[in-house]
Structure of Methyltransferase family protein:
Amino acid sequence: MGDSVQLFSIRPDDYARFRPAYPNSLFNWLAEQCSTPRCAIDVASGTGQAARALASHFDRVVACDASIEQLTGTADWRSAERFAAQAERLPLRDGVADVMVVAQALHWFATPAFFAEAKRVLSTDGLFCAWCYSLLHIEPSLDALIGQLHSDTLSDYWPQGRASVDAGYRDIQVPFETFQPPAFAIEIHWSLRQLLGYLRTWSAVKRWQQTHDQDPVTELESEFKRLWGNPERVRRVRWPLHFLAGYPGR
C-alpha cells in the first residue's frame, strides 16, 4: 500500500471528521445477504466508518489496516476488533468471515494475492463487497469548480489507483463472478466549512501541498465562497456508490 499508508496517516482525526458516512441501508442489505450474520471483516478499515456500521448487524467485526495510526486515532470503534496487517496477509483462520468489505480502498491492493486471501478468509457462501465513490454532486457550478480542482489542478498528483475509483472499479478484474448490488448513495448536508475540510482530505491535495508548500483548496476558497453564498448555508451533497461484489468461494 506504500504511498497510501503515508498519505492517510498524516491527520487521521481530520480524515475521520470530514469523510462522509456510508448509508445505513447498505449495511442492512449486507446483513440480509447472510443466513446468520456472525462475522464481518473490514479490510483497509481506515478510521473505521464501515466497521462501526457493521457492528450493529454482526456478532463479530474485525477491522484491519496497514496504517497503525488510522487504527489508533480518536474514532469510536465500538466493539470492532482491530489489528494492523497488509490486506494480502490477514492473520485470520480459513473460512471465518460471512462478509468481507473493502470501503474506498480496493484500488490500493486489487491483486491476485489479495483476492486469493479473500477467498481463503471467507466462508463458502461468504460475500465479498467492495465499493468506492468519486466526485460528489451538489449543483452544476460547484460541481464544475470541484472538477477543476480534481482534474486540472491535481491531475498529476493523484496516486496510482485513483483512476480505478474514477472508473467506478469497472477496470478491476476479479477471479470470481460478480453481481450488481442495489443502488446506494451517500447523502449528507454540509456547510461550506465541511466541504472544504473534506476536499483537504484528498490524497492529491496532500501531495500538492508537499510539493508547493501551499494549499490548493485555499487558492480556490474565494470562488467557493462566491458560489456557495452564505458559508453557514447547508447544502445537500451526494456521492453515488460503485460496487464490486461476488461470492469468491462458490
Observations:
- Residues 196 and 218 are 9 Å apart (CA to CA).
